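Posting here for the record, re: iron/sulfur cluster.
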Amino acid sequence: MDTSLRTHLDDIFNKCLHCGLCLPTCPTYNIDLREESSPRGRIQLMHAVENKSIPLTKKFVDEIYYCLDCQACETACPAGVRYGELVEAMRNVISESKKDPLFLKIVKIIFMRGILSSPVRTKLFGRILGLYQDSGLRYAVDESGILKIISESLQEKHRLLPRSDRNCFDESVDEIIPVQNCEKRGRVAFLSGCIMNIALTKIHQDAIRVLNLNGYEVVIPKRQVCCGSLHSHNGDLEEAKRLAKINIEVFEQHQFDFLVADSAGCSAFMKEYGKIFADDPDYSQRAKSLSSKVKEITEFLFEVGLTKVPKIYSATVTYHDACHLVHTQKISRQPRELLQNIPGIKLIELPESSWCCGSAGIYNVVRHEDSMKILDRKMENIKSTEAEIVVTANPGCHLQLEYGIEKNGLKMEVLHPVSILSRAYPEILDH
Ligand code: SF4
Ligand code: SF4
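Prediction output follows.
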């Protein structure tokens, strides 16, 4: 770890007052009430490892990856301790010391570096997944219970695989989508991302439609890549930076007022590009400039206001706050107000709405059992609302909640706020 980073982290460590106000908000602490599984305990452990007063043991690594990096503790902290930065820096140290747990190492090599790092390989993965599900093989494997023979959790992880869409999003749209039949208010760039480019692509289509109907021309640069957030959160800062540099170069070739993303995790990380390149003479200004334009889509729509008035869409909905929206970007009011502005929408507040759902990037794969305990708590709260639709603005939460709904035999739909808005704009508005 270089000296400037160490000084920066020391500053964060020293801010902690050990008051414990973060403890009741921590999902892992609330499972077993162990101090070392709390934010305060982890801060002390990380500080001790960083000072070399305790060694970097397997037990320590396990604790750091038991953390969801949900950043609920940051929201609760009166001293402004930026816990997320600490845990991500420590994961990077663990990774560079080659002490990652074996399964995580495999997921990082095959899934993150092997698939997500390359748009070509991500699309190939999407096509293979599409063939697997369209041929009926996926269903047959699920129903046969064959994976259960190997391990119960393998069967469950298999069910968590996203459903690949028939067409990749970026191949089904033009690079520039002009506004139609309304006055142009501006031009935004749009992040097509990695997984959302092959699965949940309807959310992107709804986002573009809502932006267009509200007067925004949309540019979707073809050469863009994954934002790098999953890499960064899991200790692969080197690869996250490589991807971020490509995006900076690609997006700066286009003119736009804002860069809009409909995934909470991606917008949160792209807002950090300026910070991660702060010491890079070639990229610091360019990264800062791009980050300053990044907007999460509900944040953007709330700020610019809807010029196209939504029609009646009758439904009872509840809203789950994605951690990277509510805790990292402090966005909670905007999506709720957008929903409440739709005539016919009845918003029922979800108890513990800002409590993590257990998805947390690749957490539900690498720490499946812990993730399911956290999901169970979320599902109990969701059930209590008796809503027809659960709304959330992050693909990881979206897939995790769909899985929870299926597992609990519930009849509920999971939708992004822009998908509800799009439904509230009947087809007639397109003409
Ligand atoms: S990031 Fe979340 S899981 Fe990790 S210590 Fe903070 S509250 Fe707990
Ligand atoms: S709330 Fe903040 S200051 Fe208090 S123990 Fe937690 S991290 Fe430290």
